[in-house]
Amino acid sequence: MNEMPDLNTDGDLLAHIASGSSRVTPQPLAAPVWNAGLSSLVTMTDAQLMAALGIRRPAARRLQLAFALHRRLLASQVPERAKLNTPEVAALVMRPLVQLDHERLWCLPLDPHCRLICAPIEVARGDVDGTEASARAICRAALRAGASSMIIVHNHPAGDPSPSPADAAVTRRIVAAGRAVDVPLADHVVMCADGRFASLRRDQPELFR
């Protein structure tokens, strides 16, 4: 029975997966991209992985398969009809979806018991610097799903979940719009690919008054 190889660093683990073997010491990968966070690799294409790590296409495909398994494992942790009564649960539901190199915004429509009615609805898509969120589009998505309330979630690809002044302004607009159509905004959660998040309801409760 073969013993597990020494995997002291993220680079060791990546090199072993890319090599396709646990029996030999693999060739070190070209660039320590993982020092900036493994999540920087998850969104890369085969060609980008090949360029960034100095590997060939079969190795890049092995890494892509490992990343796909990672996303499925994250998704498997989400309970069916999850009750989204805390930002921690909302972040757990959304983590498989926020492994991105650009911003997206989702509406999570909730029933009267704070359970998710359907899969998160993507409402807006942007680039690495931001996305334009329309209160009308968000409320329309919630109403079409038959929501009693809603949570909105967007990701920060740069790796800092701290809400920006623009995030606060968007929250204020959607709170007002939700009240007007009787679908209150329960929270606005900002997430990073590594699972860290910020809850505007928790950190800036005055926006929801």
Flag low-confidence runs. Answer: none
CATH superfamily of the largest domain: Cytidine Deaminase, domain 2
Q: In the CATH classification, which architecture of the largest domain applies?
A: 3-Layer(aba) Sandwich
Main sheet?
5 strands, mixed
Description of the structure:
The chain has 209 residues and is α+β, with helices and mostly antiparallel strands. It folds into 2 domains: 10-75; 80-208, Cytidine Deaminase, domain 2, CATH 3.40.140. Helices cover 38% and strands 14% of the residues. The protein has helices at residues 10-19, 39-42, 46-53, 57-76, 87-94, 135-144, 165-180, 200-203, and strands at residues 104-110, 121-125, 149-155, 185-191, 197-199. A 5-stranded mixed β-sheet has the order 2-1-3-4-5, sandwiched between helices. Helix 7 (165-180) links the parallel strand 3 (149-155) and strand 4 (185-191). Helix 1 (10-19) packs across helix 4 (57-76), helix 3 packs across helix 4 (57-76) and helix 6 (135-144) packs across helix 7. The radius of gyration is 20 Å and the shape is elongated. The N and C termini lie far apart (62 Å). The model has no long low-confidence stretch (mean pLDDT 83).
Write the layout of secondary structure elements.
Elements lengths: L9 H10 L19 H4 L3 H8 L3 H20 L10 H8 L9 E7 L10 E5 L9 H10 L4 E7 L9 H16 L4 E7 L5 E3 H4 L6
Parallel strand pairs: 3-4
Antiparallel strand pairs: 1-2, 1-3, 4-5
Helix pairs in contact: 1-4, 3-4, 6-7
